[in-house]
Amino acid sequence: MAKLINKIELTSFLGGLCLFLSAIEYLFPRPVPFMRLGIANLPILFALKLLPFPYIMLLVLLKITGQGLISGTLASYVFLFSAAGSFTSAMVMYSVHKIPSKWVSLIGVSILGALAGNIVQLILSVKFIFGESAWVIAPLFLAIGTISSFLIGLFAVKFIKRSQWIFSLEGRL
Amino acid sequence: MKIIDLTALSLAIFLTVFSFLSAISIRSDSLEILIQAGDKEWIYPIDSQISKVFEGPVGETVVNISSGIVSVSESDCSEKICIQSGSIHSGGQWIACMPNRVFVTIRGKKEGELDGEAY
């Protein structure tokens, strides 16, 4: 891992990790294609600490492409849906992460990112896919998003605190 | 947990609870089934006995209603999440087939609307 000091190499490594986690995520049943646990967002939380903005956006593109490949939705409009949610979420996470760390940790970053992405997807599904009655999907969608984003944020905080790998990369890219 | 973490968590919990409370405010004694496919919608009484094909962008989705239990038995979508969703029977529950734009939900009856069997 010590060799991974090139930004583009690290982006592709994290993209591969997203692909792997998307495959794990795919094992869990879900009621609509875009309602995921969100574990594939973990590499994005790491990337916030390690990579500049354009590389984070590239990583998000790799993540949604991987998810599209695994679920078979790459060539459908469901992909655009994932893209809208993921990019909104990543931009919110990036902005919140810019707030000094005495105010916010990756837990808050993760929760706000998930909330923003979920709200965008809810609005899109009501406006463009199903219609007004689709608001009934909101409780389940927001509940899953809140619980999983909290746990993923907590895991990221603990992992980054202990990881020799993250420590060795910080400041070397 | 830092101050913005707690604020974010509280906001997320508040929105979840708020959306949940809006969804369960449905009265269980007057339910109806709403099916949306594409830009059209159909409303059926909860005690209907039907099996109907709905057309969408990827093909056909078959919705069955029997003794107040609603399920999707066939669909031309790739993931078949709608079929795996199983059956629904109480107010606020739903089944969605996103690729085929079919959405089925059980909701409280709205005044002044005709149902699918009224003519």
Describe this structure in words.
The complex is a heterodimer of chains A (173) and B (119). Chain A has 173 residues and is mainly alpha-helical. Chain A has a single domain, classed as Arp2/3 complex 21 kDa subunit ARPC3 (Orthogonal Bundle), CATH 1.10.1760. Chain A has 7 helices and no strands. Chain A has helices spanning 7-26, 42-50, 53-71, 77-97, 106-129, 138-162, 164-169. The relative contact order of chain A is 0.15. Chain B has a 4-stranded antiparallel sheet, with no helix packed on it. A 4-stranded antiparallel sheet of chain B has the order 3-4-5-6. The model of chain B has no long low-confidence stretch (mean pLDDT 87). Chain B has a domain at 28-108: N-utilization substance G protein NusG, insert domain (mini-chromosome maintenance (MCM) complex, domain 2), CATH 2.60.320.10. In chain B, 22% of the residues lie in helices and 40% in strands. In chain B, a hairpin with a 4-residue loop joins strand 7 and strand 8 (102-108).
What's the short story on this structure?
The complex is a heterodimer of chains A (173) and B (119). With 173 residues, chain A is mostly helical.
Task: Record the SSE blueprint.
The complex is a heterodimer of chains A (173) and B (119).
Chain A: H1 7-26, H2 42-50, H3 53-71, H4 77-97, H5 106-129, H6 138-162, H7 164-169
Chain B: H1 3-24, E1 31-37, E2 40-45, E3 50-56, E4 59-66, E5 69-75, H2 81-84, E6 87-88, E7 94-97, E8 102-108
Attribute tags:
heterodimer, A: mainly alpha, Arp2/3 complex 21 kDa subunit ARPC3, B: alpha+beta, mini-chromosome maintenance (MCM) complex, domain 2, 4-stranded antiparallel sheet, 8 strands
- The total of beta strands of chain A comes to 0
Bin the strand percentage of chain B: 35-45%
Q: Summarize the amount of helix of chain B as a percent range.
A: 10-25%
The number of distinct helices of chain A, counting runs of at least 4 residues, comes to 7
Rounded mean pLDDT of chain A is: 91
- At the fourth level of CATH, the homologous superfamily of the domain at 28-108 in chain B is N-utilization substance G protein NusG, insert domain
Instruction: Briefly note the CATH topology name of the domain at 28-108 in chain B.
Output: mini-chromosome maintenance (MCM) complex, domain 2
Uncertain segments of chain A of ≥5 residues (pLDDT<50)? none
Identify the CATH class of the domain at 28-108 in chain B: Mainly Beta
**What is CATH's topology name of chain A?**
Arp2/3 complex 21 kDa subunit ARPC3
Shape descriptor of chain B: globular
